C-alpha cells in the first residue's frame, strides 16, 4: 500500500525511484482513512521535533545586489531584464543591516545577491570579516552563486560559515532548458562539491514546478539529496516573473511543495529546511503550512525598505513594504499558531 511507503521512508530514510513516484502520484489519495500528504506532514513534523524540537530558526536575509551577469530564463533579476531597477548595497549599508538585525535578535545573516562582479573577493571577504569581527556569535551565510574554488576558499577563510547554492534541477537536460548555453549543470554541481569540501555548511535545492520538470525529476531530486547530504535544502514553487522568457508559464503548486518538504525531512531528518518566501507568496498561509509539513527555518528580509521592492526574482513577492521589525512580529504571531516557537540562536546543523 502506498501509505506504508511513508513509514518505510521514515524508518529507512530512503525509497526507490519507483516508490517515490508512487508517493508523488498518489499524494492526494486516502490510505488508512487519511490523505497521504497529510500523513507525510505529520510524520515529517514528528521527525523534525525529535531532532530540533518545536523550534523554528530565523535567518536575516540581506539582499545586497540585484545586478546579475547571468540570464537564467526564470529569474526576474536576469541580466537581460532591462526593466529591473538595479541597486547595490555598499559595505557600510550591509553592516548596518546586520546591526539592526542583531538588535532584533538575529544570529545568522544571509547575504544573497545576483552574480555581481562588483563584489570581488577582496570586497566580499572584507564584508564577511567585518560582520564576523563585530558579531563573533553570529553565523554568516553567503548565497552569491557560482565562483571559483579559490574564491570560495577565501570567503571561508574570511569566516563565512554557510553557503546556499541551489542546484535548480538534478536533470542535466532540464537544466539546459532553464538556462542559456553558457551556464552548465556540471559547473553548478562542481561548485556544490567545492563548497562541501571547503567545509561550508552547504545548502542545495530546486524550484518545484519549474517549466519542463517531471514527476520523475522530483523522484530523482529526493534520491540525489540523500546522496549529497547537504546541511540545508531550499525549495520553493516556481513563480513566473512577467519580464522573463518564462513570464507566461504556469506557477508551481504549493501543495506539491509542501509534500516535497515532508519527504525531504523524512529522507534527511536533520536537515535545516526553510519555508520560503516563494511558498508564502503563492499561498497566504504557505510558510505556516511549510512549518507544519516539517520545515524549521524562516528567512525574513533585513534589506533596507527602499530596495526591498527591487529584489524581485518573481512576481507578487510578499513582505516588500514592511520594516524588518514588523516582519518579525508578524512571523512570530503566525508561527505561534502552528505550535512552534521562533528561536534566535544560530541554529547550526545538528549531526546525528
Ligand atoms: N544568484 C544566487 C542567489 C540568488 S537566486 C544564485 O544563483 O544562487 C536564489 C534562488 O531563487 C535561485 O536559486 C532560484 O531557485 C530561486 N528563484 C529564482 N527565480 C525564481 C522564480 N521565478 N520563482 C521561484 N524561485 C526563483
Account of the protein in words:
By secondary structure, the protein is α/β, with parallel strands linked by helices. It has a single domain (2-343), classed as Aldolase class I (TIM Barrel, Alpha-Beta Barrel), CATH 3.20.20. It has helices at residues 2-12, 17-25, 36-52, 91-103, 121-134, 149-157, 172-178, 185-197, 215-228, 254-267, 277-282, 286-292, 305-308, 324-336; strands at residues 30-31, 34-35, 55-58, 60-65, 108-113, 139-143, 162-164, 201-208, 232-237, 297-298, 341-343. The protein has a 6-stranded parallel sheet. It has a 3-stranded parallel sheet with strand order 10-3-11. A hairpin with a 2-residue loop joins strand 1 (30-31) and strand 2 (34-35). Helix 1 (2-12) crosses helix 2 and helix 1 (2-12) packs parallel to helix 3. The mean pLDDT is 97. The protein binds S-adenosyl-L-homocysteine (SAH). Residues 74-75, 112, 114-115, 143-145, 165-166, 168, 207, 236, 238-239, 241, 278, 313-314 line the site of S-adenosyl-L-homocysteine.
Write the layout of secondary structure elements.
Layout: H1 2-12, H2 17-25, E1 30-31, E2 34-35, H3 36-52, E3 55-58, E4 60-65, H4 91-103, E5 108-113, H5 121-134, E6 139-143, H6 149-157, E7 162-164, H7 172-178, H8 185-197, E8 201-208, H9 215-228, E9 232-237, H10 254-267, H11 277-282, H12 286-292, E10 297-298, H13 305-308, H14 324-336, E11 341-343
Parallel strand pairs: 3-10, 3-11, 4-5, 5-6, 6-7, 7-8, 8-9
Antiparallel strand pairs: 1-2
The structure holds S-adenosyl-L-homocysteine.
Tags for this model:
single chain, 352 residues, alpha/beta, TIM Barrel, six-stranded parallel β-sheet, three-stranded parallel β-sheet, 14 helices, binds S-adenosyl-L-homocysteine
Amino acid at each position: 500500500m502506498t501509505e506504508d511507503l511513508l513509514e518505510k521512508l521514515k524508518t529507512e530514510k530512503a525509497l526507490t525511484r519507483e516508490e517515490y513516484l508512487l508517493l508523488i502520484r498518489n499524494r492526494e489519495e486516502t490510505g488508512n482513512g487519511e490523505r497521504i500528504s497529510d500523513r507525510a506532514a505529520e510524520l515529517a513534523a514528528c521527525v523534525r521535533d525529535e531532532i530540533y524540537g518545536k523550534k523554528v530558526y530565523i535567518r536575516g536575509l540581506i539582499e545586497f545586489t540585484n545586478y546579475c551577469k547571468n540570464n537564467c530564463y526564470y529569474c526576474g533579476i536576469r541580466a537581460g531584464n532591462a526593466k529591473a531597477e538595479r541597486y547595490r548595497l555598499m559595505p557600510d549599508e550591509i553592516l548596518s543591516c546586520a546591526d539592526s538585525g542583531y538588535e532584533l535578535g538575529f544570529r545568522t545573516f544571509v547575504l544573497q545577491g545576483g552574480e555581481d562582479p562588483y563584489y570581488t573577493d577582496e570586497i566580499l571577504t572584507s564584508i564577511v570579516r567585518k560582520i564576523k569581527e563585530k558579531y563573533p556569535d553570529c553565523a554568516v551565510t553567503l548565497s552569491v552563486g557560482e565562483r571559483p574554488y579559490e574564491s570560495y576558499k577565501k570567503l571561508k577563510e574570511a569566516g563565512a560559515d554557510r553557503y546556499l547554492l541551489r542546484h535548480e534541477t538534478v536533470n542535466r537536460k532540464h537544466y539546459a532548458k532553464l538556462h542559456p548555453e553558457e551556464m552548465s549543470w556540471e559547473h553548478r554541481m562542481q561548485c556544490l562539491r567545492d563548497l562541501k569540501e571547503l567545509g561550508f555548511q552547504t545548502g542545495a535545492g530546486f524550484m518545484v514546478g519549474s517549466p519542463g520538470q517531471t514527476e520523475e525529476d522530483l523522484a530523482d531530486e529526493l534520491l540525489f539529496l540523500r546522496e549529497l547530504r547537504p546541511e540545508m535544502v531550499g525549495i520553493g514553487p516556481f513563480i513566473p516573473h512577467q519580464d522573463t522568457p518564462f513570464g507566461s508559464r504556469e506557477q508551481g503548486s504549493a501543495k506539491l511543495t509542501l509534500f516535497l518538504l515532508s519527504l525531504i525531512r523524512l529522507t534527511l531528518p536533520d536537515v535545516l529546511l526553510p519555508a520560503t518566501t516563494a511558498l508564502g507568496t503563492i499561498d497566504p498561509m504557505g510558510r505556516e503550512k511549510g512549518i507544519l509539513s516539517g520545515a524549521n527555518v524562516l528567512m525574513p528580509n533585513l534589506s533596507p525598505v527602499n530596495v526591498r521592492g527591487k529584489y524581485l526574482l518573481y512576481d507578487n513577492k510578499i513582505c516588500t513594504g514592511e520594516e524588518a521589525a514588523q516582519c518579525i512580529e508578524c512571523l512570530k504571531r503566525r508561527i505561534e499558531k502552528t505550535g512552534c516557537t521562533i528561536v534566535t540562536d544560530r541554529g547550526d546543523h545538528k549531526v546525528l
